[in-house]
From TrEMBL:
GO terms for molecular function: diguanylate cyclase activity. SMART domains: GGDEF, PAS. It comes from the Bacteria. GO terms for biological process: cell adhesion involved in single-species biofilm formation; negative regulation of bacterial-type flagellum-dependent cell motility; regulation of DNA-templated transcription. NCBIfam families: GGDEF, sensory_box. InterPro entries: Diguanylate_Cyclase, GGDEF_dom, Nucleotide_cyclase, PAS, PAS-like_dom_sf, PAS_fold, Rev_trsase/Diguanyl_cyclase. Residues 38-108 form the PAS domain. It comes from Paenibacillus psychroresistens. This is Diguanylate cyclase. One of its GO terms (cellular component) is plasma membrane. Residues 201-337 form the GGDEF domain.
Length: 337
């Protein structure tokens, strides 16, 4: 893990405490008085601090409080003091920590935050947020850091992020067929329209409708209708080969395919593959007037978008082409012109 986006991790009171602590440590060190021997009041304050307090110089740890021991799973301060700070850092976080230390040496007055993974004495990985500033410690430049272990919070944030991702995915999926729903279509259509407009690429839509689906539902019942819709959706999914193509259930028995960077000729080829795939399912339909099996009618429209155009015009054009197919006898493809 690397440097994370800088956020307000510390309250104003905590920042003031850090600044006062830096000033006091510097004053004591400059006077040549040992911090742990002569400033018992400040030692008690540091020991009672729930956050870890750590002083290092170019990575070598010079001082810690008991909270640092607890964070890293050690019993005594002697097990930590004198070692290199990188000994406690996850391999994936070492490079970013080195960059932070180097940056800190250049920014004498700035408080610099770091967010990364560290390693406990038992090998467990933990997440630690730190805020540090430069000080003078025993007459030499050093770095004062406040450490806060936030592993549980990070895990909770990750779980929430994953839950939100799943919810968002579900919000754009059709519950019956598992393909994209109308919301998914709307989002992808806006994205593809903008992309094709920006790069002067054609954009094609194929709108389709299962022929005589109401009669199919009346004959085979809603379970039969669901079976038909699921199989049609699966067949449509298998026809589309490019990751950039988007398939959605537009409503009821109507489906739509977005084909970015596809000319009319290419859209017609895809539409014919779809028509044949649905016919090839051989789902019985005794109420159909065009076939003994379930069939589909399709409308194709293609445009090269630009900023002066209304994106809804393409949808209306594909819908009109679909209407032409239905009116002309169904189980066919029409192109808007």
């Amino acid at each position: 893990m690397g440097m994370q986006e800088e956020r307000e991790l510390w309250t104003k009171a905590e920042k003031d405490e850090l600044a006062n602590l830096r000033q006091r440590i510097t004053e004591i060190a400059d006077n040549g008085v040992a911090l742990l021997e002569s400033e018992e009041r400040y030692r008690r304050l540091i020991e009672l601090c729930p956050d870890g307090v750590l002083v290092h110089a170019e990575g070598k740890i010079l001082f810690i409080n008991q909270s640092v021991c607890e964070i890293f799973g050690y019993n005594t301060e002697d097990e930590v003091v004198g070692r290199n700070l990188l000994d406690f850092v996850h391999p994936d976080s070492k490079e970013s920590l080195i960059e932070t230390i180097q940056k800190a040496s250049l920014d004498a007055e700035d408080t610099i935050r770091y967010d990364g993974e560290f390693i406990r004495s038992d090998g467990e990985y933990i997440h630690v947020e730190t805020s540090g500033c430069n000080i003078t410690y025993h007459g030499a430049p050093a770095r004062l850091n406040i450490l806060r272990e936030v592993t549980e919070r990070k895990i909770a944030e990750q779980k929430l992020k994953e839950a939100n991702r799943i919810l968002r995915h579900l919000s754009t999926r059709d519950g019956l067929t598992g393909i994209g729903n109308r919301r998914y279509f709307d989002e992808m259509f806006v994205k593809d329209w903008a992309q094709c407009s920006r790069y002067s690429k054609p954009l094609s839509l194929v709108m389709m409708d299962i022929d005589y689906f109401k009669a199919y539902n009346d004959t085979y019942g809603h379970l039969g209708g669901d079976y038909c819709l699921k199989n049609v959706a699966q067949a449509l999914t298998e026809v589309l080969k490019r990751p950039s193509d988007s398939l959605a259930r537009y409503g009821g028995e109507e489906f739509v395919v977005i084909l970015p960077d596809v000319h009319e000729e290419g859209a017609l080829i895809v539409a014919e593959r779809i028509r044949l795939a649905i016919e090839g399912l051989q789902i019985p339909h005794i109420q159909s007037k065009v076939s003994e099996f379930v069939t589909i009618s399709l409308g194709v429209a293609t445009i090269s978008p630009n900023k002066s155009m209304d994106s809804q015009d393409l949808i209306h054009s594909a819908d009109k082409a679909l209407y032409t197919s239905k009116k002309a006898g169904k189980n066919r493809i029409s192109v808007y012109s």
